Amino acid sequence: MNADIRQRLSALAPVLGLVFVIAVFAVMSDDPAQYLSPRNLRIVFAQTVIVALGAIGMTFVIISGGIDLAVGSTIALAGVVTALGLREGYPPVMAIAGGVVTGGVVGVVNGLAITRLKVLPFIATLGMLGIARGVAKWLANQQTVNAPETWVNELAVTFPTPSWLLVAPGVWIALGLAIAATFLLQQTVFGRRVFAIGSNENAARACGVQTDRLKVWIYGLAGLLFGLSGVMQMSRLRQGDPTVAIGTELDVIAAVVIGGGSLSGGEGTIVGSLIGALVMAFLRNGSQQMGWPNYVQEIIIGIIIVLAVAADRARRAKQA
Which of 84, 104, 217, 298 is most exposed, with the fewest beta carbons within 10 Å of its own? Predict the structure, then answer.
């Protein structure tokens, strides 16, 4: 019974953290009603899309016991590829597909480096962080890539047209993909195997799971989501910028960890990661409204990551 109560409290922790962050900034704000207004909520939801999509992909990676530090660079590269496609006159759907596939290719390369070259995920993706960023700057000729006006620019807009959408189309896309990813993790053989290799890779291999192939699939799937996040970044900026999303990997990893994901692998949920992404969005939004500089936000995020990992370690120690 005690174990069941602890498990439920652990599942509620991300929600309680979100409520705490919202409550703190609402109290500190000069106008709490404005902070909690539908208009500001729309802004927060639109700002959440990029990190939320990245967090969905990162959830698969972290559950499997891996890590991906190239998220920000992949987002920048995918955004540049999408903008270049639009500028060259390709149909918007093809330009978006190019950005998403670019992210998938980066993910597959990461997976192959980890499985074939036996490079640690931290090192492999750290190297890709520089490679993807460099390729993005090369393709963009070290400048921003302006794209013509298309419906792609409306994907991450704060106030959508038509108004009955209520929130940005990207928000609905993220929610739809979150539902699909939750089903994939919880109701399919693929999902069970993701948890298996994160919990005990040797045992999973002994049970017949082709762990190397599975890792390539996981990093490839995550890369596709990072690529879509890059499309949303391009939509928000209305241009492809090879220098954007520096440090976004910290927000994405923090979202997954805050949501209950364990950096040791074997634990995590899509819903928890989305809640973690909302925590990050409300934190940044509240900090901006308070007039705090960016470095204060970065310090707070760093503290949150350390505390979340420390809590996970303490929880695992008790279970052991």
Answer: 298
